[in-house]
Write a structure and sequence with these properties.
single chain, about 230 residues, membrane, transmembrane helix, transmembrane, DUF969 domain-containing protein, DUF969
Length: about 230
């Protein structure tokens, strides 16, 4: 009956599928696994407490939450929007590359921009579309979809590869706690530094790709009120 000890995995799967509270699902799954494994409730809470103490660096993240909240409450996100809206005359690729840079800088300071729902769809994509139409006039529906995809993809790249540049990010603390539990001493700052290198590489690669997109659009449409770009 060793397979019964896997009940915790089943509970987590069901809980996530039904979108129950994440922390509650994990705790219940852990408790169920402990009980079927012969661990008493007292021993379970002892283990839980010891694990929390060993990973107490998580409290660093909790301490930074008020700072982040106050910054956003007093207009940090709104100022980012205003800054982007003032950027006139940018091509689609340059504008999206600039957004990647802003997104990564926000990640360094642990500022959440809310990504696709509250930033990319209502702000980044429309402005990218506007930059294209200002430069080329009307563009095809296919190219409009490509710009939508480009905006969404760059958001994913910037977020994924820069989220651990913040030293108190949950990913950094998870990596640090896991490595330390396995006997490897590692500083959170070292993890962030490594993530910072990856963020720079990502910025370079996405910028090259975005500028290549501009080049393809120039060749296809030419610049508004000018002759079509001719292949050399």
């Amino acid at each position: 009956m060793e397979w019964i000890k896997l009940i915790g995995i089943l509970i987590i799967l069901v809980g996530f599928i039904l979108k129950f509270d994440t922390i509650a699902v994990v705790i219940i799954a852990a408790l169920a696994t402990a009980l079927v494994s012969g661990i008493s409730i007292t021993e379970f809470f002892t283990l839980l407490g010891e694990a929390f103490v060993k990973n107490r660096l998580v409290t660093i993240f909790l301490l930074t939450l008020p700072m982040i909240g106050i910054s956003e409450r007093f207009g940090l996100r709104q100022q980012a929007v205003i800054l982007i809206e003032k950027m006139k005359g940018l091509t689609t690729g340059r504008f999206i590359s600039l957004y990647v840079l802003i997104r990564q800088i926000a990640g360094v300071f642990g500022i959440r921009i809310s990504a696709h729902p509250q930033f990319v769809r209502p702000i980044v994509n429309p402005m990218s579309q506007g930059a294209a139409k200002s430069r080329y006039g009307e563009i095809s529906a296919e190219d409009e979809d490509k710009i939508k995809a480009l905006s969404a993809a760059n958001e994913n790249f910037a977020n994924f590869f820069a989220q651990n540049t913040f030293v108190a990010a949950s990913g950094v603390l998870l990596i640090s706690g896991t490595l330390k539990s396995l006997g490897y001493e590692v500083a959170e700052s070292a993890i962030s530094q490594t993530a910072f290198i990856m963020a720079i590489i990502t910025l370079v690669i996405t910028t090259i790709y975005n500028l290549t997109f501009d080049y393809r659009m120039d060749r296809k449409y030419g610049i508004k009120n000018n002759q079509k770009v001719v292949a050399s």
